[in-house]
Design brief:
heterodimer, A: alpha+beta, 8 helices, 12 strands, 27% helix, B: mainly alpha, 12 helices
Chain lengths: 273, 306
């Protein structure tokens, strides 16, 4: 299904580009450019979440909050901000009851519904890595992206961000990455797949003149690193030998709301076959 | 009348200003909007006033273009209603933004893929168009007024369609993601705009002692005979096509509307907004109708998407 979609899209792009080339006298537009767009994303960082291993301890949520200067939850829990959230759903009737646990970071869609919808371009998709990121200084707070996200992965600063009852300082990151800098009231924020750590790692690898290896990447994100049952994995889908790629090929792999065509890069492993 | 009205309105404005300052200081949390319901009463007012404005301009264009003599005196009222509603709609958006101080980003960094940007462009063009129409109709330049009236009809359809597409193009909200949303918005816009013009006329006649022929109001009221059934038909189409296939997410929205949290608002709209007005219109005396409910109803649709 996935493969088929890609081929048809590529063909479509080729067709469009060919038509454009036929129309344009100059040879600026060529089918090549269309193909380049397909493979332009250097890394496709993806997360695998093993639902069989997740025990719902919510350590990922807490770790993420600490790492990213996320404000403490207000009294009205509907106004809370949790970049990665764990949903619990009880199923069945006594005595056959079970709780379904579903941890949900941003799905980092390859075809994100939130990006195109922003009227000011405050949210964008990183071209090199395909990550969906937010420009905090440009966001006007219309909350269109938050409404358009089918996963509810975007959060709005409803009130002044507070940390332990005080107005938030740069609590634990005195010299933060621009993506995790202190936010202000009235803007939208979201999970970045720990882009500050990725940046650091990429810079380090470049300095040493080598590629990032899977082992370094595997436990990079805070939520992954803190997960005590090792339910989460991070990796590059463009590397066919990475842990994430291997797990994504397994029969247990599934995607959340796949039918919407968002192509999420968070892969869930079913609890059982 | 004036003696009571003006201080009263000033008091309301002062209260609103106070409330707005409070909101700016503490953030949008004070509005009661929250996680699944990111958009609330401000967006509802925005959509409603865009609708009312579109309806107002439709009435004005009708009187200019169709050359119906008896509607001539009210065309200006309709134009003013259209412009005031448009300004109110834009204000609604300003209150809704988390960072109103960054509002100019809409013009500095417009992103063309967003339906919201389309709306900003279309509304601004439409606003200029309305102002031009009013200006030339005051000047008495009938030829230019007719030209602008000609342009204004597709413009108001566009404005309201784009406003509907802000909601209708999102796949994340099952209650909104439907192709009938734009026609539905337009028909409800016409109803509410007509209602607003008629209310303004009646107010002017009763309290400001403006001489107005009774025929004008009843003549305008006749258009409800077409508009209300059309609106009802569109709503029926919408409900049938969301309800019949029994897709869980869609039926959840309907359930919530018919019997759930929004049942009160929904039945209030259906009964007081459509059925009773329709009965009045088709019976002996039909005069004032509020088409308000339908628009507000629609915006409440997607709240239960998840």
């Amino acid at each position: 299904m996935e493969e088929k979609n890609k081929v048809s899209r590529k063909d479509f792009l080729k067709l469009g580009a060919a038509a454009g080339a036929a129309l344009a006298v100059s040879d600026l537009i060529k089918p090549k450019s269309a193909q380049a767009k397909e493979t332009k994303v250097k890394h496709r960082y993806a997360m695998v979440i093993d639902l069989a291993r997740c025990i719902g301890c919510e350590a990922c949520t807490v770790a993420c909050k600490v790492e990213h200067n996320v404000p403490a939850s207000p009294k009205n829990l509907k106004h809370r901000i949790e970049w990665t959230e764990v949903y619990f759903k009880e199923e069945g009737k006594y005595p056959y009851v079970r709780t379904k646990i579903n941890p949900r970071p941003c799905q980092q869609c390859e075809n994100p519904p939130c990006v195109g919808v922003c009227p000011v371009g405050a949210t964008y998709q990183d071209k090199e890595r395909g990550l969906v990121l937010q420009r905090y200084e440009r966001c006007i707070g219309c909350r269109y992206c938050a409404t358009a996200c089918p996963y509810g992965a975007r959060y709005f600063n409803w009130s002044k961000p507070k940390w332990r009852g005080k107005e938030r300082q740069e609590a634990l990151n005195p010299d933060p990455h621009p993506q995790i800098k202190k936010r202000i009231t009235g803007i939208v924020e979201k999970c970045t797949f720990c882009v500050e750590r990725l940046d650091r790692l990429e810079a380090k690898a470049e300095k040493e003149g080598r590629k990032i290896n899977d082992e370094e990447l595997h436990l990079l994100c805070t939520c992954v690193n803190t997960c005590m049952t090792r339910a989460r994995h991070l990796g590059d889908l463009n590397d066919p030998d990475s842990t994430v790629s291997k797990l994504a090929r397994s029969g247990r792999a599934m995607y959340s709301l796949e039918e919407l065509g968002t192509h999420p890069k968070v892969i869930y492993l079913k609890e059982s076959f | 009348m004036k003696k009571i009205l003006i201080p009263l309105l000033l008091a309301v404005m002062g209260l609103a200003l106070f409330a707005w300052i409070h909101q700016l200081q503490t953030g949008l949390a004070v509005t009661g909007m929250n996680k699944p319901a990111f958009w609330g009463i401000y967006i509802v007012t925005f959509v409603f006033f865009i609708g009312a404005s579109a309806g107002g301009i439709a009435v004005a264009a009708l009187s200019h273009l169709a050359g119906i003599e008896k509607f001539k005196p009210i065309s200006r009222v309709a134009e003013v209603v259209a412009i005031i509603s448009l300004v109110l709609a834009m204000l609604g958006i300003m209150f809704d933004l988390g960072r109103p101080d960054r509002m100019l980003n809409l013009f500095l960094h417009p992103q063309m893929t967003s339906p919201l940007t389309w709306d900003v462009i279309v509304i601004n063009i439409y606003f200029v168009l309305c102002l031009a129409m009013l200006y030339f109709s005051i000047k008495g330049n009938t030829k230019l007024v007719k030209i602008f009236a000609c342009i204004s009809i597709p413009a108001f359809i566009l404005v309201h369609s784009v406003t509907a597409w802000i909601f209708g193009l999102m796949k994340s909200q099952p209650g909104w993601h439907t192709s009938i949303l734009a026609p539905l918005f337009i028909s409800s816009a016409l109803v509410s705009g007509l209602a607003l013009v008629i209310m303004a006329l009646i107010f002017a006649r009763n309290y400001l002692n403006v001489k107005l022929n009774e025929e004008i109001i009843t003549g305008l009221g006749k258009y409800f005979k077409i508009l209300l059934p059309v609106l009802f038909y569109f709503l029926f189409c919408e409900f049938l096509s969301t309800g019949f296939p029994q897709i869980p997410k869609h039926t959840d929205v309907l359930k919530e509307l018919f019997t759930g949290k929004f049942a009160g608002i929904f039945w209030f709209d259906m009964v007081l907004g459509i059925i009773i007005p329709a009965l009045i219109i088709f019976s002996a005396a039909g005069k004032t109708v509020k088409g308000i409910g339908i628009v507000s109803l629609l915006t409440f649709f997607g709240v239960f998407a998840e």
